[in-house]
Specification:
The protein has four helices and no strands. It has 137 residues and is mostly helical.
Length: 137
């Protein structure tokens, strides 16, 4: 199968738009849950710790990302159950990776938001390839 460069550029551009908006959703929620109302404030009785804040932020951003990626970025017509299953497998891997690396980086003194951005950058790289060639194929 020949590589359709125009299609690849279109998908790549849309992937970046969906990705940046997903990151904005994820970072905003993470900041609200951990930095703003987390254990560091007077509202600590309603705040969340690092990992639950991260999990909730990722869940919301992931739901948005799946819908937008399937419908708009990759315009997938593949089996919905198949795409959901593959997406969830990748999601679990990304979740474990993200939470583990954030905790490790924060433990060695990296600011939580920088740690979060580092994990997102890693995940973005492999997700495009896997979405395009496996999940939404």
């Amino acid at each position: 199968m020949a590589l359709d460069l125009k299609k690849l550029i279109k998908q790549g551009s849309r992937y970046l738009i969906v990705g940046f908006s997903s990151v904005a959703i994820e970072l905003t929620l993470f900041w609200l849950l951990y930095e703003l109302i987390g254990y560091k404030t007077a509202l600590s009785f309603v705040g969340l710790s690092l990992v639950p804040s991260n999990v909730i932020a990722i869940l919301v951003a992931t739901l948005y990302n799946f819908i937008m990626s399937r419908k708009w970025t990759f315009q997938s017509t593949s089996s919905l159950p198949r795409s959901i299953t593959l997406y969830l497998i990748l999601f679990v891997f990304n979740q474990v990776f993200s939470s583990t690396v954030i905790v490790l980086l924060v433990d060695v003194g990296v600011h939580s938001m920088l740690a979060k951005v580092i994990t997102i950058a890693c995940i973005v790289c492999w997700n495009f390839v896997l979405y395009r060639t496996v999940v939404f194929k």
